[in-house]
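Hey, sorry to bother you again with one of my protein questions. There's a protein on my desk that I can't quite get my head around. No rush at all, and the record is pasted right below.
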Amino acid sequence: MTQKFNIENLSCLCSSTVNKDKIAYILYPMDILAGWIEPAAKKYGVTIVVITGMDWQNVFSPWAAPGVPKDDPDFKGESPEFLKLLQTKVIPQVEKTLQVNTDVERSLVGVSMSGLFALWQWMICDSFKNIASLSGSFWYEGFIDWINIIEIPYKSGFGFFLLGDQESKSNIKAFQSVGTNTEHIIRLLKDKGIRVQFESVPGNHFSDAIPRLEKAFTALYSQLQQD
């Protein structure tokens, strides 16, 4: 049975503790997923936690940048603070409540800006062993420059990336680079010996939310079962 509680103004919707050794955190509006997470947890054999209530544009932006589209408010670049909140408050309290094992293997699933955040944090820490980035906002100003110059760490986990085949055809110029940028990121990670999978699917940025999550969980947990 799912349970819901609040931590530091964030809402956490948790499945039953299906697996004390594996937990998947999803940064996604929970109203879309409320009826999905419990059957999904049982289907994939993983405890699932959906976190929402964030200032979406700002906590998932790794640094300040101009708003997109042009007239939108600028991004504030609050990812470092949000990551610290996850590490020091949210994760410890969730896992204490769910009574998962202290060495539980964590995965982080993000969509759009939270998909950008998922990869960004993977490159700078080991809080999550595996990630899934669905329609990650890799058009974000400065992100490709950043990932080109950092020392990409070797990751022992697995990364899944998905993009709609219409996303690069957006009429907003900034978004049109998302396809080539995603492909570039995949090459960089593979060159480092990191296990990744990329899937192009029909549709635009907002298409088929649940089917895309199903693809991510299928890829992520079928891959991990081979370890």
